[in-house]
Amino acid sequence: MEALGDWRPEGKRSVRARWIAIHMQQTLILNASTEPLTFVPVKRALILLLKEKAEIVETHVSKRIRAEKKEFPYPLVIRLVHYVEIPRRFRAVVSNTVLFARDHYTCQYCGRHKNRLKKKERLTREHVKPISRGGTNTWDNVTTACSTCNHKKSDKLPYEVRMYPKTTPFEPRYIALILLSETMHEKQRPYIEPFIKTAFRTG
User: Fold this and answer.
1) Which end of the chain is less packed: N or C, by CB atoms within 10 Å?
2) In the 3-class helix/strand/coil scheme, how is 19-71 assigned residue by residue?
3) What is the DSSP secondary-structure string of 98-158?
4) If DSSP codes are grouped into helix, strand and coil, which group holds residue 180?
């Protein structure tokens, strides 16, 4: 596998430029049950394939990966040979990236999507029960708010300013993580779409 570090230049592209381009690409990993797990760099996917820990499901039609003396299919989707347990919930520190995606990039107070915000406005993390009032920085107490609504609510409780989130805050499912990729290939989408409806729902 070490030979994969010796890339063949294509045209005027340098070996380093090719390495960076390949390394930035992402491969979708499926569990043995075909449930999407995550995206990994193509280099990592190749290692799993060469160690026979995974098998190719989908490849790029026009791309190949060339090492010094070998050529490999460009893996877009691979499936693990053995099933691995994954957390059913995303129990980590609250991330604005996942929070905003959970709330569909919409302020939960005024209902405006991020594309409708004014020039100096932005999406923010808002604590339904303020930290200063005993609230916690947990999924069930944070919601997405535009900076204007966040400032308006300030450190008040919802009933004090009559501002209530349009949806009840909840902890997103684990699968929500992989749905955040903005560079998903069309061949990867069919393996993820069946999980979209359940990714951001409660229960």
Assistant:
1) C
2) HHHHHHCEEEEECCCCCEEEEEEHHHHHHHHHCCCEEEEEEEEEEEEECCCCE
3) HHHHHTTTB-TTT--BGGGS-TT--EEEEESS-GGGT--SSGGGEEEEEHHHHHHHTT--H
4) helix
CB atoms within 10 A of CB 18: 16
* Residue type, position 85, single letter: E
pLDDT digits (tens, 9 = 90+) for 160-198: 999 999 999 988 766 655 555 556 788 988 888 777 656
Beta-sheet strand order (sheet of 71-80): 36-41, 26-30, 71-80, 54-66
First vs last C-alpha separation in the chain: 43
Query: Does the predicted TM-score (pTM) go above 0.70?
Result: no
Pairing of strands 71-80, 26-30: parallel
What is the third-level CATH fold of 87-185? DNA Binding (I), subunit A (1.10.30)
Q: Which residue has the tokens 């008040």?
A: 156
Residues 25-64 pLDDT 10s: 689 999 999 888 888 888 899 999 999 999 999 998 888 8
